[in-house]
Amino acid sequence: MALKLQYVGARPVVKIRLTAWGNDQEYWFARGQIRDDIPEEYIVNRIQPMIDNGGTAWKIINDNEKSEAMLSVVVEEKKVAKPVAKTETEKSEAMLAAVSEPTPEFDQSMSRAEMMAWCKSKGIKTSTKDTKSTLTEKALALNAGADE
Predict the structure, then answer these.
(1) CB burial class (10 A; 0-12, 13-18, 19+) of residue 79?
(2) CA geometry: angle 111, 112, 114, nearest 5 deg
(3) Distance separating alpha carbons of residues 65 and 6, to the nearest angstrom
(4) Tens-binned pLDDT, residue by residue, of the chain (148 aa)
(5) Angle between helix 132-147 and helix 112-122 axes, rounded to 10 deg
(6) How many CB atoms lie within 10 A of CB 116?
(7) 136 vs 39, 66, 111, 126, 132, CA distance in Å?
(8) Which domain holds residue 28?
(9) Same domain, 55 and 106
(10) What is the DSSP pairing of strand 13-17 with strand 26-30?
């Protein structure tokens, strides 16, 4: 069964004497120490009931449960499928859909930044010195040229 005992209590050092269990030895534990040489019948008959009643100074570690849990995690990881990357055709279709979306009509109430973006999307050359009035003139010129 391979049970191990760990002391997790408040004291820095604890001693267990197992004279009643046919073992005339003393076992010392430091806080956080794990020992595997404690008789399993002592762990099952003495420590387990104490933990079941709410004792928090001891922790029982079962190696068999750990190995089974670790094995189940490894098996689950193998079953996880990796996400499939988009193919080139899906990417190009997404790009075409984004490009083919109609751009809003030019409006003189747009902000300067919106006007700059609209002009750039239509292929009109812009400069950082352009004002709203010059951008409006360029847009109206483009629309007048498209109407002819």
Answers:
(1) exposed
(2) 65
(3) 16
(4) 578 999 999 999 999 888 776 778 888 999 999 998 888 888 888 889 999 999 899 998 887 765 566 656 655 555 555 555 566 677 667 666 655 556 678 788 889 988 888 888 888 888 889 999 999 998 888 877 755 4
(5) 30
(6) 18
(7) 90, 72, 11, 11, 6
(8) 3-66
(9) no
(10) antiparallel
Residue 78 within a domain:
no
Give the chain's domain count.
Answer: 2
Dihedral, 6, 8, 11, 16 alpha carbons, nearest 10? -30
Domain assignment of residue 92, yes or no: no
Question: Is residue 91, in this structure, part of any structural domain at all?
Answer: no
- What is the pTM assigned to this prediction? 0.42
Q: Is 51 exposed, middle or buried (0-12, 13-18, 19+ CB in 10 A)?
A: middle
Query: Tokens 């004792």 — which residue?
Result: 55
* End-to-end Cα separation, the chain, in angstroms: 91
User: Is there a contact between 142 and 122 (Cβ–Cβ < 8 Å)?
Assistant: yes
